[in-house]
Predict the 3D structure of the following.
Amino acid sequence: MKKIMIVDDSVIIRQRLKELFKTKGFDVVAEVESGEKAIRKFRECKPDIVTMDITLPGISGIEAVKKLIEMDSNIKIIMITAMGERTTVLEAIRLGAVNFIVKPFQEAKVMEVIHEVLGISPGEEEQWTQEMEDSKAKQEYNNEENIKDTNKEIDGEKDDTFID
């Protein structure tokens, strides 16, 4: 499962991306609202992908990109930008960001960029999503079986307690 960190000062954008990524089988390992927090969390979480807003409180998304690339030159950073920030996006790409998404965004476009960055075709995503669902179903089944076994053990202990 690919790990994603979301960096955006808008709680609404962070929540929207988090829900989208989780429904598509990604592990959202962190969501932060500033460049400084992104740098700290990156060290802890080691995400495969970072979505990074350009305009952040404190250090900018561009400065955060520089620092993250210094820490891991293989990190895949996708910039999130408002219309009209073309020059800044180009600078981020020059520094090592791999792609960008323009706000307001469509969920399909976000996933298209994620797939492109990861080299996943739409068919592969469907297979990947199905494998995730199968894995979750197996885990839920195993949890239910464990609960049944535990209940049987408890019932058995109750029966033993009342034997004269």
About this structure: The chain has a mean pLDDT of 83.
